[in-house]
Amino acid sequence: GAGVSQSPSNKVTEKGKDVELRCDPISGHTALYWYRQSLGQGLEFLIYFQGNSAPDKSGLPSDRFSAERTGGSVSTLTIQRTQQEDSAVYLCASSLTSGDQETQYFGPGTRLLVL
Amino acid sequence: AQSVAQPEDQVNVAEGNPLTVKCTYSVSGNPYLFWYVQYPNRGLQFLLKYITGDNLVKGSYGFEAEFNKSQTSFHLKKPSALVSDSALYFCAVRDQTGANNLFFGTGTRLTVIP
Q1: CB distance A91–B43 less than 8 Å?
Q2: Looking at chain A, which residue has its C-alpha nearest residue B52?
């Protein structure tokens, strides 16, 4: 079946511009996570959505980062006024529920380069 | 608080030999542990997980992992390495204190030498 998809696969932008990254989770998965993978920082959690509940934004590094999840499905991560340190691979994952035992399935990621 | 340690940045093994990628953890509750593999320019692929039950967990591509509570370890193993196993491996523990996100180790790059 279809896995998690992300778009674009690559994004090059100039410092100060806004970018939007999209994630389509596996159909029927209620939980959706965004992570960032960068050199020197490893994989870090950014934000989490469960159903229609308010998102857990505890991992967002600054107020330039925000995310939405429309209709309990597609999610968009927005980075405003991008900085060079935002350059990283942004990974989206979904799971059937948010239970402790659930497996998270990852998309291929969006590679962001801020010049 | 939870933490995951992968003490080896790099592991090299000859094709056909057994491989081990090490992981130790620290959690405040029940340990829910995961292994993922990342091939170049790809996302993370799930290999296996430990939730409860048998300490030896079998996963994809012939990999297995042994949960050891007394040593707080969850080492990934494979009896006979393939060149195609060369990749970046991540151990992760579930963060049960907040968003239930995964908390990852720093990764171990496995190279299988032909």
Answers
A1: yes
A2: A101
